[in-house]
Design goal:
14 strands; single chain; 17 helices; alpha/beta; 41% helix
Length: 389
């Protein structure tokens, strides 16, 4: 872990810098980039700057309690490792490594449908809660088999994503030749140098099996190829009516990911979801929507205590987690923050990302004069008036 230890790595941005150095541009930009002009991507991060703290002085707090409960699962941390597709591309067996790190830290790991590792191996790698993020790729019959497999593998909750009727326009991926590299034909040749310039990454990827498929999406002809993602998403749009058969099939809790309005939050309550995530997909889908943090108060006000509300997008520091919880989030999801660590140094990088956020979080609570995340509320922050409607 020395390569990511202090003082070399002090924050998530340091891990981002190391990830950019280790991974080819096509891989790093896939992780780091957003849709179109990346307006929402940048806004997600900057939104936290609009909130300022109101600390209590002369408060001695030797220890703070950062535990929480989400969908009945007791977590040692109020942040969860979000589903990130294709993490095996960042580092060999990436999903297993991230899941193992999450379990060791006492928090949950959410596996993406679009992962490169068998779900059984990922679930076995963690001692913490393992949840499965769902795209209905392949149609209802394929999705039903996938959900049955996830249940048998030991996943205890579903995370159903509702904001991906098509893939977002990620211009960096197009410029970097993602389509050509996946095609493996002569058109890929101009883009090969960026991969050859990162021999350590390339050797690791080849040793891990090369260009991955999606082993958890079993089509009649076999695992879904990487190149078919965009087409598969367009053919698998989820609608609110799908919740009926999914709920009948899956007897455990279901979380709805991608809520961005009060109306959709109320719909999530109506269909019987256990929790929802205020999310704009990390700025990777519809560009120009408000940052997730900005929408959080609207959603919390709409649902009250009828459903657990979480949020993701732009979280890079423990103080960001505190601000989100002050606005009513039960917990947060972190995606890029841990994925930078994975791309930089494998499991050691994920562990370092978790440790950075945990340490930031504890320090922020002590400086605020707050002894527990359960006591956080708006009295600890100043919120712009136009955020509250």
């Amino acid at each position: 872990m020395s390569s990511v230890a202090a003082p070399h790595v002090l924050n998530i941005e340091d891990l981002r810098r190391l990830a950019a150095r280790r991974a080819p541009r096509v891989v790093f930009d896939y992780l780091d980039g957003g849709a179109e002009a990346e307006v929402t991507l940048r806004a997600n991060v900057r939104a936290f700057e609009a909130l300022t703290f109101r600390p209590r002085g002369a408060v001695a707090i030797p220890e703070v309690d950062i535990r929480t409960t989400v969908m009945g699962a007791k977590l040692a941390l109020p942040f969860i490792l979000a589903p990130v597709g294709s993490t095996r591309m960042f580092y060999p067996r990436g999903e297993e490594l991230a899941a193992h790190a999450a379990g060791a830290a006492g928090t949950a790991y959410i596996l993406s449908t679009l992962s490169g590792t068998n779900m059984e191996d990922v679930q076995a790698a963690t001692t913490g809660p393992a949840w499965y993020q769902v795209y209905l790729v392949g149609g209802r019959e394929i999705a039903t088999a996938m959900l049955e497999r996830a249940r048998k593998a030991g996943f205890t909750a579903l995370v159903l994503t509702i904001d991906t009727p098509v893939s977002g326009m990620r211009e960096k991926d197009l410029r970097n030749g993602t389509k050509e590299l996946l095609g493996r034909g002569p058109a890929m040749l101009p883009y090969l140098p960026q991969m050859l310039a990162h021999p350590r990454w390339l050797v690791g990827m080849l040793a891990d099996g090369g260009l991955m498929k999606f082993p958890n999406v079993l089509l009649p002809e076999g695992p879904m190829p990487y190149a078919d993602v965009g087409r598969a998403l367009e053919q698998s749009v989820v609608s609110w009516s799908d919740f009926a058969w999914i709920r009948d099939l899956w007897k455990g809790p279901i979380m709805v990911k991608g809520v961005h309005t009060a109306d959709d939050a109320r719909r999530a309550v109506d269909v019987g979801a256990s929790a929802l995530i205020v999310s704009n997909h990390g700025g990777r889908q519809l560009d120009g929507v408000a940052p997730s943090l900005r929408v959080l108060p609207e959603v919390v006000a709409a649902v009250g205590d009828r459903i657990e509300v979480l949020v993701d997008g732009g979280i890079r520091r423990g103080s960001d987690i505190v601000k989100a919880m002050c606005l009513g989030a039960r917990a947060v999801l972190v995606g890029r923050a841990y994925a930078y660590g994975l791309a930089a140094a494998g499991e050691a990088g994920v562990q370092r990302a978790i440790d950075i956020l945990r340490t930031d979080l504890v320090r922020t609570l002590k400086l605020l004069g707050c002894k527990s995340v359960s006591e956080l509320d708006r009295s600890y922050i100043d919120v712009p008036k136009d955020w509250l409607g």
